[in-house]
Amino acid sequence: MEEEKKGKQYWDWGWARSILFAIVVAFLIRAYILTPVLVEGASMEPTLHDHEKIIVSKTISWIGEIHRGDIVIIKDDEVKINYVKRVIGLPGETIEMKDDVLFVNGKEIREPYLDDYKKTANQLGSRLTGDFGPIEVPKDHYFVMGDNRPHSMDSRTDSLDTLGFIETDRIIGKSKFVLFPFKNIRITK
Questions:
Q1: 107 is catalytic
Q2: pTM (predicted TM-score)
Q3: Residues 46-71: what's their mean pLDDT?
Q4: Are residues 27 and 40 in the same domain?
Q5: What is the pLDDT of residues 95-154, one digit of tens each?
Q6: 43 is known as an active-site residue
Q7: What is the tally of structural domains in the chain?
Q8: What whole-number distance in Å separates Cα of residue 171 and Cα of residue 189?
Q9: Residue 51 maps to which CATH number?
Q10: Structure confidence by residue, pLDDT tens digits, 154-183
Q11: Same domain, 66 and 54
Q12: 149 contacts 174 by C-beta, under 8 angstroms
């Protein structure tokens, strides 16, 4: 009878340890590696849609770098909101936009994620992005824009409201893939 009690206590403690271990691992993964983020608004259309849930890699602060074209999540501590934007300019670069063409340090940069939008804008006789620049990105900062350029609050000074240049420590992570809705699961580019 005593052996039966010991066996049962060991079994219960074993399950409790396993559950506790799983909770700790899940917390660590969410805090330091991957976390879900809800896209709110249309500023990243057509790449990301309103109310899609994306998985964000938070490893950039310790093993990764930020590159032009990355979709990043930016924290805003003042209004307690996160923004999802695309990195356009890196620290020290000069950014300029002319006739919907991006120039970085005087060199034309192709933005294939905007091809369909540009085609539609051209058919309507309008432009996707107003001209601006040249603008130099300060050290330890990034220049970001939404893919839905006419409807994006971003680093441009001529947008309705502006996020300005984004300090490195405000970038939470990079978008890796869309998780929800399930019919839209895909890698983000």
A1: no
A2: 0.79
A3: 83
A4: no
A5: 999 988 999 999 999 998 888 777 777 766 677 788 898 999 999 999 999 998 888 888
A6: yes
A7: 2
A8: 17
A9: 2.10.109.10
A10: 898 655 567 889 998 889 888 886 877 777
A11: yes
A12: no
Instruction: Enter the tokens of residue 4.
Output: 């039966």
Can you give the residue range of the structural domain that contains 24? Answer: 1-32
In a shared domain, residues 65 and 150: yes
CA dihedral angle for residue 115, residue 59, residue 38, residue 175, rounded to 10 degrees: 10
3-class DSSP state for residue 30?
Answer: helix
Question: Does residue 1 sit in the same domain as residue 86?
Answer: no
Q: Would the CA dihedral through 148, 113, 184, 121 be positive or negative?
A: positive
**Catalytic residue among 18, 57, 61, 85, which?**
85
**Same domain for 70 and 17:** no
Selecting among 43, 152, 159, 175, the annotated active-site residue is 43
- pLDDT of 51-63, one tens digit each? 998 888 877 666 6
d(CA 145, CA 84): 9
